[in-house]
Design brief:
Elements: H1 3-8, H2 12-23, E1 28-31, E2 36-38, H3 42-53, E3 57-61, E4 63-64, H4 69-74, H5 76-85, E5 107-110, H6 111-116, H7 129-139, E6 144-148, E7 153-155, H8 161-175, H9 180-194, H10 196-207, H11 211-235, H12 240-247, H13 250-269, E8 274-276, E9 279-281
Parallel strand pairs: 3-6, 4-7
Antiparallel strand pairs: 1-5, 2-7, 3-5, 8-9
Length: about 280
């Protein structure tokens, strides 16, 4: 398998992981990203968790370091999606591949399980290889868990709104497995749940029309904001004031995410495919 083939379809990272895994000799293989910062005890903690939980894959959610306004508005939606909409506690308990997620910032496999699912060679040319590998582990009958690694790993994924826009545009349609009906359905649901209630609330307050509807819209507006505040207090200890302030702008964050999803769909269907850091992932 030639490196040039991987280069054309945008799989340099998967190719590098594949090559390195061939050289690894240990019983466990740990993958991480180049832009992550690790505590000295991280590896020991990961090994201990895998042995205690008796899982063949452990992934984790690190602390995301945020700088620009665009980062604060969009990046925390990763935590919001995974930790509030996905039943994380069921991931190690249930066998369904749909109850699996992975984060390339920390993926630790039991070597035998990694080889059994074909490793990164099985996901060459794919964008969300971390999620696909996690699902493959479940499909093969192995167990995995998703942990909180706030004290052990830090990462700054992007450094501007432009980078956020490009990075999320690369991944978002892939998150919905390139299913247009599924992606558009999720877009509509996000708008109905997190944007429309605030619009209804503002309209009712301005027109002083329906008190009950205003109360319901207020509750629907406050619930996700409270969830975002709780996540910010736990996962965004750097610049906490910014994190809390942007939690109040949750409807704006969702609206921007919907625009990014539309752009992600557009990128996928254009002739050149999805572009990221000079690489192209064909549709």
């Amino acid at each position: 398998m030639r490196a040039s083939h991987y280069h054309r379809d945008g799989s340099e990272k998967n190719f590098a992981c594949y090559q390195l895994a061939q050289q690894a000799k240990g019983a466990y293989i740990l993958f991480t990203d180049a832009d992550t910062i690790h505590h000295a005890t991280m590896v020991k903690a990961v090994m201990r968790q895998m042995q205690q939980r008796k899982v063949q894959l452990l992934s984790a959610q690190p602390e995301q370091i945020l700088g620009s306004l665009g980062e604060h508005l969009i990046v925390p939606l990763l935590n919001f999606t995974i930790l509030t909409l996905l039943p994380v506690a069921l991931i190690p308990l249930r066998p369904e591949p749909s109850l699996a997620t992975g984060n390339g910032q920390m993926l630790c496999f039991q070597r035998d399980a990694y080889q059994a699912i074909g490793g990164h060679a099985a996901v060459k040319g794919r964008i969300l290889e971390d999620v696909l590998l996690a699902r493959a582990i479940k499909e093969a009958g192995y167990r995995m868990a998703y942990a909180d690694a706030l004290e052990l790993i830090q990462c700054r994924m992007y450094h501007s709104f432009d980078e956020v826009w490009s990075g999320f545009s690369k991944n978002l349609f892939a998150f919905y497995n390139y299913s247009l009906p599924f992606a558009l359905g999720a877009l509509l649901l996000n708008l109905l749940l997190f944007v429309v209630p605030q619009c209804i609330l503002c309209a009712n307050l301005l027109m002083a029309s329906n008190t009950l509807l205003s109360i319901l819209a207020l509750l629907a507006t406050l619930l996700p904001i409270i969830m975002r505040i709780l996540l910010a207090l736990r996962f965004n200890q750097n610049r906490i004031g910014w994190a809390l302030g942007c939690s109040l702008l949750h409807p704006l964050s969702i609206a921007l995410e919907c625009l990014i999803l539309l752009n992600s769909i557009r990128w996928h269907y254009r002739k050149t495919g999805t572009a990221w850091k000079g690489r192209y992932y064909p549709a």
